[in-house]
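Kindly review these tokens for lecture notes.

. . .
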Amino acid sequence: MYELNLRAWDGEVVYPLVSQKLDTSIKKNTGFIKKLKKGLTKENKSSLLKDIGEISLEKYLSEVITTINEVTSNISNKNEDILTAVEIICAMHQRFNVRFTIPFFELFLSNFANPTEQLSEKDENFRISKLKSNLKIITELYLVHVFKSIDIVESKDMIPYYLQRKIHRKEPFIFSILKEMLNYKFKMGYTLSVGTLFVKNFSPFFDNDDTSWDLYIMDDNFKDLLHSLFKAFSEAVITRMTDLTKTVTKLMKEHKKCQIRTGKLNDEYIEEYDLLIPILEKFKTATEVFAPIFNLETPELVSQNVEDEDDKPLESMIVTQVIPVSERVWESEDMRIFYEVLPNLDHIVKHFENTESSTGSDTTILNTFFEDLKLVETKEEMDNLSESYWKKSLDNKATRNRLLKFFIETQDWSKINI
């Protein structure tokens, strides 16, 4: 196939099944186009190849080119269907050479233009699915010498703008396409599956020891360029995966804190978390493919480093949590400490819980306590009174009710120097 395609570029009609007398009837010619529109499949391959050799198609060539482009652009990802498309296109190239191949190449390149408008998730997934099969077809056609280089394009306006700029740079068009596709909305991970599928399907491109395809590669620096592109891409994928892992871990922690603080099941943290998890899974999957191929840090080690960092014990939420200004309850950090960081009276409380409670007969001590409470001016004085409350066994129902009334009726606490 490769040798025949090379000769076809020299203008020879080398299609082996071509007949000496071609059928020029309208019925046969239009029937061939209708057959094309049904799709390029394993089942109709033999019939289509036979027709290419027996039917004239000269007057209908432009319609045939358009139809083959439409059908090929929407072909499934099945290997047998893709190989059928490659064989049909090779047959047309061998039969009609540049009259078919150049206009078809110009049309087919339009499948590799990134969308200029926002697509829905469903449409984006459909586009990526098409892109995978189209990329495989164009690469196969490059290897069998149907599509040689971007230089064969006659109408620059027919191809995507980013490729128009590469015409005089002698850059392999497969490399240019991949660079454009892989950069598309990278942080969302839309084209990660395109990259992983490419390195799996065309692994000899990334192995300098494998020279089995070198004969079919038309650009001297093709393998080096692809290796450099995908290694840089893989490093970016691993970095993004690591950052996302840290982000979702932090979001889950913030969500748990928010649950404790507000009692709500849903908040902005869990909403963002739910959006990022599917994206993270894409980057994890891609990392598992790229890391071993390009001898990069394994995803297990990257994930473990993140987990080790996240396994550090959390400090007390109340005592040490730094809350954004917009969420603060207290006017200052000193005021927060006054109300939230309480003196440790555990040893005193435990000691006096087992003693008899005051019956309230020693009213002098109780009255003195409340008089001192009225005069308190510092945080330290308040702490000392709290300790005195337990040491003097003042805790009982009557005292607690009196304390409650005292705090309710006292309107001005500004005299306390916090």
